[in-house]
Structure formats: C-alpha cells, structure tokens
Amino acid sequence: MENISAAGGALNRPCSGSEDACGFYKGAESNFTISEQYPDLYIILPVIYAVICAAGLTGNTAVIYVILKAPNMKTVTNMFILNLAIADDLFTLVLPINIADHLLYYWPFGEVMCKLILSIDHYNIFSSVYFLTVMSIDRYLVVLATVRSKKLPHRTYRAAKIVSLCVWVLVTIIVLPFTIFAEVYTDPLDRKSCALIFPKPERAWLKVSRIYTLILGFAIPVTTICVLYTLMVYRLRHMQLNSNAKALDKAKKKVTLMVFIVLAVCLFCWAPFHLATIVSLTADVRETPLVIGIAYFITSLSYANSCLNPFLYAFLDDSFQKSFKKLLECRAG
C-alpha cells in the first residue's frame, strides 16, 4: 500500500510506509529507524520547525492585526497580503502537531484531525502561489494603466475581497482530492500514521498526485507570473524609450518591488520541492544520509516561507512600519 504520512506530509518528505512512498527517494525507513540511524536529524528538525512556528505565528499575526486595525492599510495589495498571512498563519498553527507526530513515531490524533492537517498542509502548497499570482496580475494591471495614463475604476478594496474569496474557493477545490484520500494507516508493526491512501494501482495514483501538484501548484501559476513580469518589464522599457507618459510614481514602484521580492522568496523556497517532485517522477533515488538530509532541508525551506513574508513587509513597506509603530504606541498609551 502506498502512502504519504503526515510526518512526511504533503511535501513528499521523509515518511513511514512502503517502498517508494516518500516521493523524493525510495526505500524510506520509519521514524523510529531514522531516530536511530540519524539522531541529529531527529533532534534538530523539531527545533527548526518550532522556530519556524514561533516566528510565523508572531509575524503573520502582526501582519493580520496591522492590516485589520490601521485605516490607511485598507488597500487592494494589502487585502491579498492579508489573505497570504492568514494562509501562512493557518499552516504554522498546525506545525506543533507535525512536530508531535515526528517525535512520537505514530499518529495519535484520529482520522478527522488527519484529514484536517493534510488538507492544511496542501493549502500551504497552493494558497501562497495563487495569491502571489493574483498580486502579480494586479501589479501588471496597475503598470499597464499607468503606462496608458488611465485609471482602474473597478480596482477596489471590495473587489479585492471578492477575488480573495474566489482564490480560497479554487484552492479548496484543488485540495479536496487530498482531503478525500487522507486516512489513518496502520503499518505491519501496528504503528498508526496519517497518510494519503490511494486505491489500486497505487503507484499510478501516487504518480498522478505528484503530476497534479506539480502542474497546479507550480507550472501553471509560475508560468503565468513569469509571463506577466516579462510583459511588465517590456511595458516599462517601452514607456521609457518610446513614450512621453510619466514613469511610475515612487509609491507604485515600491509596491511593485515588494511584490516582486515576496514572489522571488516564495519561488526560492518552493522550487526545490517541485524539482524534487520532477526527480521522483523521472528517477529512482536510493536512500542515503545525503539524500535524507537534502529531503529534510527541502522540507524546512518550504516551511520557512510561511514565516519570511512578514519580515519582508517590515523591511520593504514603509506604511506597514509606520502603522505597526502607531498601533504599538496607542496600546502602550
């Protein structure tokens, strides 16, 4: 039976189960074996996850608080940032359960929680890149309107709310198959694990799930983003060389730069995971200490994306810094 455990989770990271169950390499050992053979990994990983959890919860909660409380933060871009922070906060909230699963060697939380955790794990894969895609579309429309010296009457905070809701609905539909296949699996040693249990032929279903994630979670949104930014750069170059239109004002340039950097960090954190998926589809990689270390590094890197965005906003967005300081002063007073 093929499975991907919650300790391995949605990211095809090292997990318990049968041969070829872990996506990145074949012949995965159980958590118990990993704890014996690779004690450093077994100890260090929960520490890393705990740091990511603490930083992510603190930072994303601060972003949510500032955007909801500060009147001057009610902008279209910030609405998308708010939803991105909610998605990241939701994921970091369940990280302690993944840590407990890793330390206990088995899944003690039941099937309902199993479906919930694996669903949130997959939400983390899709939600960030789709909200960044929407933000890229928004930036392109702003640049295009500026080049043409036009306004965007339908680009409102209310419209951004509706678009954000549509993104959540889309991601929910994409994640639904993983929710359906998430079950508690008992291995031959009578240890329970939260896993994706596919029907027969299991290997074919597993391969389809990886291709599904690769196409919908990376290929389509990233291609869209790359096309948009290429067109955006072309428009700006064309405007500077062949047009008398005014350049983007300072504020718009800063927002566009911030979106671009957040996007670049997201791709940096997630590209190795999707590259590992491609490797798993095209080659059989045997388990070695190096491969296991790489797999866990890829996991930690993808997790880290959920806590990095708030720090990017703090460094790149002056209005966020000012609003945060003002809210702190008001509460202190």
TrEMBL record:
Where the protein is mainly located, per its record?
membrane
Q: Where is the G-protein coupled receptors family 1 profile domain?
A: 59-313
Task: List the GO terms this entry assigns under cellular component, sorted alphabetically.
Answer: neuron projection; plasma membrane
Keywords from the UniProt entry = Cell membrane, Disulfide bond, G-protein coupled receptor, Glycoprotein, Membrane, Receptor, Transducer, Transmembrane, Transmembrane helix
Q: Name one Pfam family in it.
A: 7tm_1
Where in or outside the cell it occurs: the entry states:
Cell membrane
What's this protein's family per the entry?
Belongs to the G-protein coupled receptor 1 family.
According to UniProt, the name of this protein is G-protein coupled receptors family 1 profile domain-containing protein
Q: Which organism is it from?
A: Scyliorhinus torazame
